[in-house]
Fold this protein.
Amino acid sequence: MIYAATIFLSSFLLFLVQPLIARLILPWFGGSAAVWTTCMLFFQVLLLAGYAYAHLLERKLPQGRLQPIVHTALLAAAAALLPIAPSEAWKPAGDEEPISRILLLLGASVGLPYLLVASTSPLLQAWFSRARPGENPYRLFAVSNLASLIALVGYPFVFEPFLAAGEQVKLWSWLFGAFAILCAFVAWRTPRAERIEAEALAERVKGTRVALWLALSATGSVLLLAVTNHLTQNVAAVPLLWLAPLTLYLVTFIIAFEGRDWYRPQLLWPFVLVWLAGMAWILVDADFHYDLPMQLGMFLPGLFLGCLFCHGEIYRLRPAPQHLTKFYLIVSAGGAIGGLFVAVVAPVAFDAYYELGIGMTVLGVLAALRFLGLGRIQGLAALGVLLGVAACAAYDAFHYHRDVRISERGFYGVLRVKEYGSPGEPSHLRRLVHGTIMHGEQYLHSERRRFITTYYQESSGIGLAIASRQDAGPIRVGVIGLGTGTIAAYGRQGDLYRFYDIDARVVKLAQQEFTYLADSRAKIEVALGDARLTLEREAPQGFDVLAVDAFSSDAIPVHLITREALAIYLRHVKPDGIVAFHVSNRFLDLIPVVARLARENGAHAVLVNDDPDDEDESLRSKSDWVLVSRDPAALTREPIAKGGGQPAEDRSEWRTWTDDYSNLIQILK
C-alpha cells in the first residue's frame, strides 16, 4: 500500500543519514565517541520537532487543501537544499566548543530534510486513519522501524564498504527526491477531514499515563546512549559500534508495535531482572572491565531486554487513534529528554560516566512498579534487583574516585589524575587516566621525576626511534597526543618537541599536575586542535620523528590511521624521518593495518614489541609500536635493530583502511 511504502522509504532515509553524516564529521572532532552522542541528541530533538510539526499540521489544518499545500512546499524547499554534505567551512580551527558547533553544522546540512522524513511516520499514520477508518494505524510504526533497521544494518555491511562518502551522499539525496514526490502525492490523495468530532468522543488521556510515556521513553533513550558510550569509549568510535545498540533499540520497537501481542510481561519479567542484575555486577567487577566478549554479551542483550520492556509498556499504554500524533509527540519528547541528559547535562553536571548506573536504576524502578502487579514473587524479585542495582551504581561512583586527585569530564571523555604514596617518598606517583586507560604517569620524588615511564621507556618503539636520530645533533619531534608529556623527557638542548592535542583539559593537566614539559631541556610547543586538521593546514614541519599516540581511551581514533592520514604525516617528516604509531590495544590488532598503509604510501614498516622483564609495572609497560619510514635504512639503524625491530606483517586479504573504509570486525583479536 502507498502509505506503508512512503513510511518505509522515509524511515529508511531517516536512519541511513544518521551514521552517514556522523561518519563524515567524526574526523573533524577528533574521532571522539561523544560525536555520535551529540549527533543522536540532534536527531532526537529534530525527531521531536518533526512529530510536533505533524501534530500541529493534523490538528490545525485538517480540512481543505492548505495542509497538502504547506507540506508540499516544505518538501520542495528541502529538495532544493540537497545534497546534504556538510560544508568544509564548518571544520573547527581547534578551540571551538564542539557540541554547539556539531548541532549547528547538522542543522545547516540536514535540518529541514531530516525534519520532514521524521514527521512522516506519525503524519501518514494519521492520514491512514482518515483514509481507512477502523484499521490499526499503529502497525505502520512497526513498518517504520523495520525500514530503519534495514538502513542501520545495511550501512556498515553494504553502504560503507562499497560506496565512497560522496557516493553515499548522492544516493541519499536522490532517494530523498523520490520520497518527496511520493509523499506529496499521498498528501494530495488523502481525503480531507470534514470535521474532527471523534476526538471529543475519545478517551481522555490521563496525566499519569502521559508521565509514564515520558519516563519509559526517556529511560530507553538513556540506556541506548549510555550503553553505546560504555562500549565505544574502550574500543573505537566507529559506525559499527554505534549501530549495534541502535539496531537492538529499533528491534524492540518493531516487536512492541507490531500489534500481535509479542510483548508479554508475564514471560519477560525474569529475563529483564536477571540481565539487569548481571549488568549491575559487571559494572562494578573489575575482573570483567576489559573482557570484551563479556561486556558485549551482557550489555547488548541487557539493552535489548530493557528497551523491550520500556517500549512494550509504551505500546500497552497507547491511546485511541484520535490521539495518535499527540502520543508520538510525547514519546519522542521522552527520547529527546533522555538524549539531552546524556549528551549535554551529564558532561556538565558529572565528573564521570554515571548515567549508565542512573539509567539502570530508573529501569529498576519502572520494572518494580510494573512487576508488582504480576504477583508477589515477581514484585519481591523486582524490589530485590532494584536495591542491588542502586547499590552497585552507588559503589561504582564511589570506587571510581579511589586515589583520585582530580576528575574532569568533557566532550572528549573523563580525565582523572590519580595519586599514590606520600610526598617525599620515592614511590610518590601521579597517573593520568582517560576513561579506564592510563595515559602516562610520573614519579614526583626529585630523584625520580625525570624517569621515562610506561609505554615510552628507552626500550619502547618511540624510545628507539628517537635514539636512532640523536647522533646527528638537535632533532625535531612531533607528538600526536600529549598525555602527561612523558616523551618530552627525551628532549635535549637545541631539540624541538611539538605536541598536538585536541583536549584543552589534557594540556592544562600536563602543565599543572606533571613536570615533564617544564623539566624538558628542549623547546616545547603545544598545538591545540585535532592533530590531522592542524597538520593539514601547517607547512611541512621537517620532523625527524612523528609519534601517533592519540588514544581515545583504548584505541587510536580511526581517522588518524588511514592511508590519507599517513600521507599527511609523511609530508611532515624528513625523507628519512620516522612516523611511530603506538598500536598497543587490548581488543584490536592494528599492526597489519599500519603495515598496509606504509606499503601503499611507498614506505617501510617495522614492529617493535617491548615486553619488559622486570616486575615494576608502575615504571615500565608492555607496548607495541610500528615505525614507518620511506627510507628503509632509517629503520635498520643500530638502536632499532638492537631493540628487536622486525618487519611488520601485512595481511594481503585485508582491504586498506582509508577515510572511506575501515573494518573493526576484521581486526578483533
Q: What stands out?
A: The chain is about 55% helix and 10% strand.
